[in-house]
Amino acid sequence: xxxxxxxxxxxxxxxxxxxxxxxxxxxxxxxxxxxxxxxxxxxxxxxxxxxxxxxxxxxxxxxxxxxxxxxxxxxxxxxxxxxxxxxxxxxxxxxxxxxxxxxxxxxxxxxx
Length: 112
Prior knowledge:
- It contains two helices and four strands.
- By secondary structure, it is α+β, with helices and mostly antiparallel strands.
């Protein structure tokens, strides 16, 4: 653990210097770590609740700007012009053939 290494000095723009060998500083660092973990747990709970509420209403897990190719952000209908653009875009390019050695001779094999 970082606090168990003597001689290190932690520098924070917001809090200044913290010396982990000092008991008071070590206490404050642990308190800040606990508060950060608490806030992370709160965020996780809010996101889970948001996902559950959207699922209960039958809404997709999408928010914000409208995705390209859809009429609205709820993805209720396809936008025909944008969908045509998506269909026009070619898929991934095929990978080049691999070269394998067979009994000392080199040959080109198509990807499997």
